[in-house]
């Protein structure tokens, strides 16, 4: 993005971004458009075309093939969160490259204790070296701005900042290429209830955005029609509408929320991240599976969990999914420093140039957040908005301060 030398952010695009109504081809940057990713050609099956054991064997074989190809190309490091997806990658890599694989995990205050324990178990049973990257809470606020600039988009939680720190330390310790489990949830229906939760978050985000945005464009009925659609329903290419909503939502999550902190943070630090679950050789096989072999017994990824029973300990294989978006600054041990940082950026001098934000309303929301308990029902939504506002102010300040490209 920065090599394109944007001169700042586009006010209407900023408002659309905060309302979750920015189209896939649009960007918040002045004069910059995005090339949206295409939805997969493969359609979710309606019925199993083979017995479940056969499907399971094919699924593992497809993943093992992708892992083997990455190992052959020189990848020997695996990001290991302790969930079933990264545990399977670690086990497959260790089988195909015994004695060569290192597993990397993150020690940060919001990391799930059970998953961290499971990561140690997986590494021990797979016979791989485990590198535990400690990320002190105090460094996260200080890395917020460089993380935003590296990801070239607004950050919505502290995990995205921790990813930036994680890849920096991995590179310092010699990692060049890492295998990541990113995308497994999306192609394997890892959380069948995610769509319901995401819809509620979008509505909450829009309600809070209305508090801080100046009035925007509306139709002749006084309604902003673009802000009525869910973001994964907007800007569909011809033919995409026949994908299940679950697949359209999964694609949106990957493009907008999951991949920027994984891929861009790593790239900034000189680390290349490979995502075998999103490689066509595996993703096509996963997306062709019918829903009833993936979502079963109130859990997701059922067939996959069954398929890896000889690779991953049951405690890991059958563990429930932990929340991905709950890491707020309000729950941080260094909450006071986060609030101080918010106050530094949510000022007339820094928010004013965005043109669409009511600075007084944003400051009022900030002071309201300072009084919220970390577990208050609106804490997550308020903190997401504050992080996004600060991120947008940082992106605009950086873009407008850069000298114009001579060729522009």
TrEMBL record:
GO annotation terms (biological process): asparagine biosynthetic process
UniProt-listed Enzyme Commission number(s): 6.3.5.4
Catalytically driven reaction(s): L-aspartate + L-glutamine + ATP + H2O = L-asparagine + L-glutamate + AMP + diphosphate + H(+)
Q: Which domain of life is it from?
A: Bacteria
Q: Annotated Gene Ontology MF terms?
A: asparagine synthase (glutamine-hydrolyzing) activity
Every copy of the Asparagine synthetase domain together lies at: 61-376
> What name goes with this protein?
asparagine synthase (glutamine-hydrolyzing)
- Taxonomic source organism: Corallococcus macrosporus DSM 14697
Its organism's taxonomic lineage begins at:
Bacteria, Pseudomonadati, Myxococcota, Myxococcia, Myxococcales
């Amino acid at each position: 993005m920065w090599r394109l030398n944007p001169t700042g952010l586009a006010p209407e695009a900023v408002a659309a971004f905060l309302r979750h109504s920015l189209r896939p081809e649009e960007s918040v940057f002045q004069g910059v458009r995005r090339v949206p990713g295409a939805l997969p050609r493969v359609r979710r099956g309606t019925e199993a075309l083979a017995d479940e054991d056969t499907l399971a064997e094919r699924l593992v074989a497809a993943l093992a093939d992708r892992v083997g190809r990455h190992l052959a190309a020189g990848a020997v490091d695996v990001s290991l969160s302790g969930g079933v997806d990264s545990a399977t990658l670690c086990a497959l890599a260790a089988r195909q490259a015994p004695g060569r694989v290192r597993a990397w995990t993150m020690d940060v205050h919001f990391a799930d204790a059970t998953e961290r324990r499971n990561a140690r178990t997986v590494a021990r049973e797979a016979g791989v070296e485990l590198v535990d990257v400690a990320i002190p809470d105090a460094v996260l606020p200080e890395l917020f701005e460089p993380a935003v600039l590296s990801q070239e988009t607004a950050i919505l939680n502290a995990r995205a900042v921790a990813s930036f720190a994680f890849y920096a330390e991995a590179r310092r310790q010699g990692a060049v290429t890492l295998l990541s489990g990113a995308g497994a949830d999306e192609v394997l229906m890892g959380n069948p209830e995610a769509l319901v939760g995401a819809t509620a978050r979008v509505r909450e985000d829009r309600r809070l955005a209305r508090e801080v945005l100046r009035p925007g464009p509306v139709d002749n009925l006084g309604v902003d029609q673009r802000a009525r659609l869910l973001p994964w329903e907007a800007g569909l290419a011809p033919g995409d509408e026949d994908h299940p909503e679950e697949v359209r939502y999964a694609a949106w999550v990957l493009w907008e929320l999951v991949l920027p902190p994984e891929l861009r943070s790593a790239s900034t630090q000189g680390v290349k991240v490979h995502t075998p679950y999103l490689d066509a050789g595996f993703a096509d096989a996963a997306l062709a599976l019918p829903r009833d072999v993936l979502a079963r017994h109130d859990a997701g990824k059922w067939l996959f969990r069954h398929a890896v029973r000889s690779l991953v300990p049951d405690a890991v294989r059958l563990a429930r999914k932990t929340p991905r978006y709950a890491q707020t600054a309000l729950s941080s041990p260094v909450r006071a420093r986060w609030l101080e940082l918010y106050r530094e950026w949510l000022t007339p001098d820094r928010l004013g140039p965005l043109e669409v934000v009511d600075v007084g309303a944003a400051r009022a929301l900030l002071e309201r957040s300072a009084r919220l308990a970390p577990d208050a029902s609106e804490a997550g939504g308020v903190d997401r908005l504050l992080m996004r506002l600060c991120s947008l102010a940082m992106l605009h300040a950086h873009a407008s301060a850069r000298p114009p490209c001579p060729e522009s």
